Amino acid sequence: MIKLELKLLFIFAHACLVLSTDFRVRHEYKYSFKGPSLTQGRYQIPFWDTNGDSVSGSDQIRIVPSLRDKTGGVWSKYGFTEENWQVEMSFRIHGRGKIGADGMVVWFVEKPSVAGPVFGSMDQWKGLGIFLDSYDNDGGKNNPYISVIVNDGTKAFNHHLDGSDMKLGGCFRDFRNRVYPSKLRLTYWQKTLKVEIDPGNMDQTDYEHCSTVEGIELPKDNFFGMTAATGGLADDHDVISFTTYSLHEHAAPPEGNVDEEAAKHAQEEQMQNEEEESYKKKMEEFRTEAKKFREEHPDLVRAVTPDPNSIEESSSPELRSILDVQSQIKTMMTSSLKAMGTIMKRQDEMMPKIAEAAKRGDKSESGGSQATLSDYASKEDMKNIVDSIKLSVTAIDELQNKLNHIADQSTSLQQVIQQVDSRVGGLAMKQQAPSGTAGAGDAKTRQQLDYLSSLVLDVQAKQKNPPKLSCPVPPPSSCLTPGFFLLMAIIQIVILLGYQMMKASQEAAAKKFF
Fold first, then answer.
1. Nearest to 133 by CA among 95, 106, 165
2. Is the pTM of this model over 0.85?
3. How many other CB atoms are found less than 10 A from the CB of residue 241?
């Protein structure tokens, strides 16, 4: 019995040693993001990529909106090179319904930005996944649930069981529709993963222990990422900040300073406990005052409380149409940019051939009648030039068609916004409240719709008068314009035809002597 107690004591001491904060942290800015001014340029996040239906804002990233059957994600561009790390993520998962779906996953995997069926990412991944599952697929009535799953690339995720057959650890925590943003902290130190969660019930950060998993082998150069998905039900999945730290061992302190360090630590602990007690008292006083206010002013509480079914049921189809049109415009613009890149690449490939053909033409003019057919561009080169011209013209026509389609989609987007505006106006006329709260909300909604309409009109005006595309001038050589390219091709064809005619006339003159 004594040996068993000693073994348990040793295991507990080892766990405390492993999970102690006996390490120093270093902030890794290339693997972190935080608002305000989260995005730069074309709403791009430095050192991060977005995919799917995710939208980047100035203060947060909406991984997926509260619409059905949407997926999205955000991934770091570079693999993390340190062995031990800690990440802190601030997020919100919120929606109007009592039940939400599907949830969010924090990844540390080998292959990033691969879309798939597992909360917007690929199945049979290789690495770590922390699942914030808000929908109860297995009927266990234990959601929202946080699961720790490590996959070696061979196992498939079972949605009907919520991944319980692969789970290494987890906890039940309600992180949905919280008053304040929820926070998740993951600490990977000496092959042990510790998961902590702050549900967001208070303004101050207060992490609660969720799960600890030992003996996890996570290689270096994996990528951090976050993905989310919605199904038949939908929530907004927002990531406000993602902070990454690399962990390193502390240098051993001098022997004489051990007592001083212990005393300082005890004093800090006492101050922290006093602050927590003071905070709890203030929170109790606040709850008492809030309850008293609700009992004394029931009319004001009823006026401030929004109706969850008034606007959502009438405008959800239109909002879904707006998002679908925006997604189509984004896809077409991406393919158009790829087509322009293909055209530029073909022009760069043809420039050396045209320059070489021009040099051969100059040599043929100086040589006179002694020139031979080998001095000119071969038939194969001319065929390549003609094929390249045809492909360039086809790509330009395709780009023009896509731009016209974008203009049509923008027109339909404006019509949808006008329908939303008319419906909101109708609701405002039907639901006029005696207090000024409803009028102020309708005015704010109308201002937002007017702002969206002005943006759409601005896009249409720019598409009707598209800016002239100018070819970038690289430092070593000048840019080749399509007009100059066609001119050089025509000159080469004329030279070749002239040579053929001259050769035919010489052969005809030679036949007269025989």
1. 106
2. no
3. 18
